[in-house]
Specification:
Shape: globular
CATH class of the largest domain: Alpha Beta
Distance between the termini: 48 Å
CATH superfamily of the largest domain: FAD/NAD(P)-binding domain
Bound molecules: flavin-adenine dinucleotide
CATH topology of the largest domain: FAD/NAD(P)-binding domain
CATH architecture of the largest domain: 3-Layer(bba) Sandwich
Radius of gyration: 21 Å
Length: 407
């Protein structure tokens, strides 16, 4: 049986990032991804706060090679009265993160996974993990070759051993569902219906890559995310209690989009280029993020809501923190992640970021977000604080809004 320091299950942005961090630290790492790439995935608008992590690993050079549109701002428009607020990321607390990118995930996920391989991670794709046997604490086996085995990972093709295993399987949460309880996040039971289109009108110049969020009645909202290749991602999110689309996803999407004059104008010449997809019941948090030799990161640990495009940022950030926690445990002689100062420290940090995003998200769903923000953003420290939070900078302790427990 082949042995690895770390096996990462899932080759999405989180799994790839963990693979990059561990491989760059010289560890023997295997990524198992069940799907063949390129493949469609939702989650197309990145946040500025992820960029320093990509700069640290060198992946930023791939991302900024001209194939992805630059995103300098996020616009929130209340379609009821055309009121608008724009968060220009250059106005945040951290001047070094003025922008991010809008990405088609088929391309982006292939890029970051290929970069992990370039950094030295071994990739088996497509290969589906069917079972993980955790070696009980205190009973760590020494194999004949002297490897320290924390888990046995079984796939549709083979069986491997590793010292540590990371579950980065997204909302499938392979270990998250098996080893701990996974709870749905109260108040965030939403449904999303979405598709790709060509010929959707755009803003000009530096604003071309802005994400546009449009507010509809009853907490529903639309997203408009432009890509570099002329395609635009358009979606509608609403509370499952108001969802009346049944199986006619396209009819539902058209009804919601065309209800707003502004979207009608933007989509006057639009032509759909993908199927219409629907996802619901996506907001969950695992009760525990780690055990003796296993750790969850990305959506497998928690996913809240798409409103502030926090998913990829949280996944790349928590996967970086989780990989660094494993590196620290290995440096201390392959310690258990249950050792104080390892898994517990990781989980508190991940949850703190999640809590701050959740506060922002609940502020949005409480209503009148645009009007509230327009009033609040008049004060400079508040404007900077909110802009930074919307940019994803949720671990910046210098943010006035965190200090005052507003977020
Ligand atoms: C409606 C909606 C809109 C969203 N919009 C945004 C957005 O604009 N911006 C944003 O940042 N986020 C957005 N998100 C969130 C985003 O999709 C996720 O947060 C992000 O993809 C999480 O990355 P991940 O690597 O943790 O998981 P994933 O990207 O889901 O990757 C997990 C990988 O694991 C693989 N896998 C699963 N099970 C196995 C197995 N048994 N064996 C091997 N491989 C396996 C899967 O094939 C997959 O490739 C949105 C989410 C929703 C629901």
């Amino acid at each position: 049986m082949q042995h690895y320091d770390v096996i990462i299950i899932g080759g999405g942005p989180g799994g790839s990032q963990a693979g990059i961090v561990l491989a760059q630290a010289g560890k023997k790492v295997l990524i198992l991804e069940r799907e063949e790439y390129p493949r469609f995935h939702i989650g197309e608008s990145l946040l500025p706060a992820t960029m320093p992590l990509f700069k640290e690993t060198g992946f930023y050079d791939v991302l900024s090679d001209g194939r992805y549109i630059e995103k300098y701002g996020a616009r929130f428009i209340d379609y009821a009265n055309d009121d608008e607020v724009r968060f220009g990321f250059e106005n945040g607390l951290n001047a070094t993160i003025p922008m991010a990118f809008e990405v088609e995930r088929a391309l982006f996920d292939k890029d970051i996974l290929s970069y992990a391989v370039k950094c030295g991670a071994e990739l088996h794709q497509p290969e589906n993990v069917t079972n993980v046997e955790i070696v009980p604490p205190g009973a760590l086996q020494e194999s004949l070759s002297g490897h320290d085995i924390g888990a046995i990972v079984k796939t549709n093709l083979a069986e491997y051993s590793c010292s540590y295993v990371m579950d980065v399987t997204g909302r499938d949460a392979l270990l998250g569902k098996r080893l701990t309880t996974r709870e749905s996040n109260k108040g965030l039971n939403n449904v999303a219906v979405f598709a790709h289109y060509e010929n959707v009108a755009r803003y000009e110049g530096k604003s071309e890559g802005d994400i546009t969020i449009g507010l509809l009645p009853n907490g529903a909202w639309t997203w408009i995310i432009p890509f570099k290749n002329g395609i635009t991602s358009v979606g509608v999110v609403c509370s499952s209690q108001y969802y009346d689309g049944e199986n006619d996803f396209e009819g539902y999407l058209n009804r919601k989009l065309l209800g707003s004059e502004r979207v009608r104008t933007m989509m006057k010449n639009a032509k759909r280029t993908s199927e219409v997809r629907r996802i619901g019941n996506y907001s969950h948090t695992s009760q525990k993020f780690y055990g003796d030799r296993w750790i969850l990161s990305g959506d497998a640990a928690m996913f809240l809501d798409p409103i502030f495009s926090s998913g990829v940022h949280m996944s790349v950030s928590t996967s970086t923190f989780a990989a660094k926690t494993i590196l620290q445990a290995m440096a201390d002689g392959n310690k258990s992640l249950e050792t104080p100062g390892l898994g517990d420290k990781y989980e508190s940090k991940a949850r703190l970021g999640g809590k701050r995003f959740r506060n922002l998200i609940m502020m949005f769903y409480d209503g009148s977000f645009v009007a509230q923000m327009k009033k609040a953003l008049v004060r400079e420290n508040v404007r900077k604080g909110f802009t930074s939070a919307v940019a994803g900078d949720v671990w910046d302790e210098g943010n006035y809004l965190f200090e005052k427990s507003v977020l």
